Amino acid sequence: MKTGVVITFIFITLTVAVFTMLAMFYIYNTRQHYSTIDAFLTARGTMGAWLSAATVFASIMGAWILFTPAEAGTWGGITAIAGYAVAQALAILLYVILGPRLRRIAPYASSLVEFVYYRFGRPMYVITLVVGVFYMAVFLSAELTGIAIAVNMVVGFPLWATALLIGSGTLIYTTYGGIRGSIFTDALQTVIIMPALLLVFGAVVITAGGLEPIFTSVREIDASLLSMGHLGGWEFALSLVIAIVAANLFHQGFWSRVYACKDVSVVRKSFLYAGLTIVPVVLLAGLFGLMAVGMGLLETPSAALFEVVLNVAPTWVLLVLLILALALVMSSADTLINAIAAVFTVDIARFYPAIAPQKLRFCARILTAIISVTVVLIASRGYSVLYLFLLADLVCAAAVFPTFYGFYSSRLTGRDAALAVMAGIVAGALLFPDPAFARGNLLLSFVAALFVPVILSLLLARLSRTFVDLESLAEKVYDIKS
After folding, report:
1. Is residue 458 assigned to a domain?
2. Nearest in space to 275 (alpha carbons), one of 51, 83, 53, 52
3. What is the total count of domains within the chain?
4. Is residue 407 in a domain?
5. pLDDT value of residue 1
6. Using one digit for the tens of pLDDT, what is the confidence trace for 380-402?
């Protein structure tokens, strides 16, 4: 085995071990305060604004930040990078409005899917369950796949080994402590993410002789990349706003954190702080794409950031980048694992109300383990999940308005909401690109998937004679009672 591979193995193992041991230590020392299954799933009412903002920020940050913004910058320029930043921020900022609303009408809920079951009935429940779990599973697989491929590209480390090391560490503390382990490690990782990214960026800029010569080279190669009039960038940006906002509203990890906040004021502050902080991070990561263009390093656009660091920066910067990547992956992976397990655990409690709390906790841990093992196996194969991501985003775009219109409208029935969602999926699918992107139009498909349900939902709600008492849901949406 080559020396570089051995060193990388040791470095990754130690980094993952440190995060895991710190999380286990924290969980063990706070076990007496979080003894219920509700605490395992939501940590209800325990987080202040800054801790909540940190865990939301770390949860939305993942390995994607090292790949997709930079890749978007290589062909869509400043416009695409800005669009990415706005889309990610808006996805979180909407929780400032929707989070307090759900806490008011369903104060004892544990998940969005649980609320949908009581608000709309089985058809919409099945739709949101499938949509949410599929999106989160694809996101989780993409995270581990991305870091495994990146490490393999840098030092030739096997995909399965990277996925196994990170997956095992994350599995240990999420299975033991549930959301508590995720929140604690998120706080640690937030402290690392921003300084590490700034350090990597600064080291590259200084080594390259400043930004001015880089931007000069970009202007000579393709001046449109530095213009806000780049049409391709605008189309990409609009597609992202619809796709990312819709998908992240079905991310159970964020809904768990809505309930983990001490009160509604904390919900508003924490998601506001996290949403605003995301913008400079995405912009900074996206600039590596423009650097790659200016330096002529576009062999693999999706790995533009890594190519720039490998070719320009000193060796120690690569180690910082590796720590950053591991922090990003673990911060999003533990949230997603816990979120998927929470959705199914709440369902078990609903359909088997007599189940003992100890058995329910055992089921939650088994589900967490199954999810982790499955995702590690998928990530070890190195499959591309981009097309699956886009399909999940399309379905989310179709489901988003009917689902959240139900937070406010008392006249939209479950049958009408499900009809609107299905119509949106069909409309979007007719325009959706094929796997080779030889036909179809991504932006038009997302627009159709989003606005067909909007029109149908508003029309059907207006014609409906059924009235749903939203205030009565407060006592009904209460599956986890221990």
Report:
1. no
2. 53
3. 1
4. no
5. 47
6. 777 666 677 888 899 999 999 99
